[in-house]
Specification:
Blueprint: E1 2-7, E2 13-19, H1 21-24, H2 30-43, H3 104-120, E3 124-127, H4 137-147, E4 153-157, H5 162-168, E5 174-178, H6 184-189, E6 192-196, H7 197-207
Parallel strand pairs: 1-3, 3-6, 4-5, 4-6
Antiparallel strand pairs: 1-2
Helix pairs in contact: 2-3, 4-5
């Protein structure tokens, strides 16, 4: 059983807790982890990109010049793909579906692998609680500075509090999630993951 220090918002050690090895100390499966990241990125794509083919571009109703005796190559339309302002050959069409699927066991394994990497790489900070007296961004910045973290920070709490939401939303380097919203992509993308003790208990209840 692996232990980790629990800090307060000032960065001072309060106690130590034991993490569930089946979640936080497994051998990460890089293949499943990679597939989960590809799936997350693919499912965010809208698939609304589209270009016009030669039949959709306006103009080109007549031959640009006669077929023979001009000294130039024969042309049938100014909307052919090799013409300036012509249609695009084999270009992307609208409403393409990029959605991928992954079974539940693989999703859970990918999430456990991402969490285990955070512990192994010492990129996990556990707080006894996270509460703010006001909704000022400055207060959140002071807490992060006290913990010694700067960029690409993922904060996971058990329940979203109005003060925490308002204080962190203007920080471009901070992503705030509830414990039931965590996902593989956001965990891997963060340099540091800050999580409350209550959020750990919630995650372990679901994933054990």
């Amino acid at each position: 059983m692996s232990k980790i220090d629990v800090l307060n918002i000032k960065g001072e050690k309060v106690k130590s807790i034991t993490l569930a090895d089946t979640i936080w100390d497994i051998t990460p499966n890089d293949t499943v982890l990679y597939n989960a990241i590809v799936l997350a990125n693919s499912n965010m794509r809208q698939g609304t990109h589209s270009v016009k083919s030669r039949s959709e571009v306006s103009g080109g109703g007549r031959k640009p010049w006669r077929q023979k005796r001009t000294g130039r190559a024969r042309q049938g339309s100014t909307r052919a793909p090799h013409w300036y302002h012509g249609g695009v050959a084999f270009g992307p069409q609208t409403e393409r579906n990029y959605t991928k699927k992954m079974n539940r066991k693989e999703r859970r394994l990918a999430l456990k692998s991402a969490l285990s990497y955070k512990v192994q790489d010492k990129e996990l900070i556990v707080l006894d609680k996270l509460s703010l007296e006001s909704n000022k961004t400055k207060e959140m910045k002071n807490i992060l500075a006290g913990l010694g973290v700067e960029r690409n920070i993922l904060i996971v709490v058990n329940e979203l509090d109005d003060n925490i939401v308002l204080a962190s939303r203007n920080l471009n380097n901070v992503l705030l999630l509830a414990a039931n919203e965590i996902n593989t992509l956001d965990i891997i993308s963060a340099n540091v993951m800050i999580i409350t003790e209550d959020a750990i208990k919630t995650i372990e209840e679901v994933l054990v």
